[in-house]
Predict the 3D structure of the following.
Amino acid sequence: MKLITVVGARPQFVKAAVVSRAISEKNLKSKSKIDEIIVHTGQHYDPRMSQQFFDELDIPAPKYNLGINKGNHGKMTGRMLEQLERVYLEEKPDQVMVYGDTNSTLAGALAATKLHIDVAHVEAGLRSFNRSMPEEINRVLTDKVSTRLYCPTQNAVQNLRAEGIENGVFLTGDIMFDSFQYYRSQLENDANTLVSHLDYKYDDFVLATCHRAENTDNKGKLEEVFKGLAAIAENSRVVIPLHPRTMQQLSEYGLSHYLDELTVMSPVSYKKMLTLLLNCSVVITDSGGLQKEAYFANKKCITLRNETEWVETLVHGNNQLVPTDSQLILAAFLNHDAELVWPALYGDGNAGLLIAETLED
């Protein structure tokens, strides 16, 4: 079977690494083989957010790099549709696999569907129920045209059922948990290396990220986020690997002075991010993926949004939704409860193998 995997953003590189590794393992044990071809749309083009992930996670090199980035959502998605259709016609895959909820996800799925190629969607069924988020539109539409829907949680399965989607649905667990388990044992052996090098004390810093358009494209919201982080930094070190686009927006809005109070890093590799996560005390983020990884690492998370796709993390207070208000952000940090329980929510770490084994069913 010939499979085309479409990726474009850094979280997708991590997820694809898990499934590609599982496909390789399956191919060694099975008479039937899956021939995987990776297509990189180019959506994340900065080497710090793209190439270093392929190198570090030992992902097979993309056969195609379409180099499509910048521009608004419609322009980017349209260009991807055009180029992916060309690749599909040339390669004639039996199936196309897409991940998550980016423009690359939607373009990969739509281009395949119009050519009557089966679509497998990893991380299907997630819903924030906020249609103002481009990610929500992408994930809903991708699920509608997919023939295999790999769900990370029971909540995701229920969301699909509520929309009338029941055929081809698999509850796999979360492939990001696979990745976390795979690398955690390696990192714990020298978990303090990066932290010690940067003169951080174990469990004595806050790990923050901010990159979602709903926060970065609104000057008022962006200022509230960084004003809140600066207030926290008066008593606790705040470490923030800063997304290039967020840095650009801070500069354009005249808000760069807030960075003086923070420990700012360039975007870090996946393994370095996990090392920071394993050593921090609290996570403050607007990222969907980091919310989950904080849960995997048993770290309290403060999410700078009004909703989350990962609603199960809210039940026991492990994750807290906080609007973009500096005082509320500070209050959430000061009042966070360290005594929390961490039920197993995301499977047993074998999602990648289950996906690989069911691709040919």
Notes: The first strand starts at residue 2 and ends at 7. Residues 10-29 form the longest helix (20 residues). The chain is about 45% helix and 15% strand. The two ends are 11 Å apart (CA to CA).
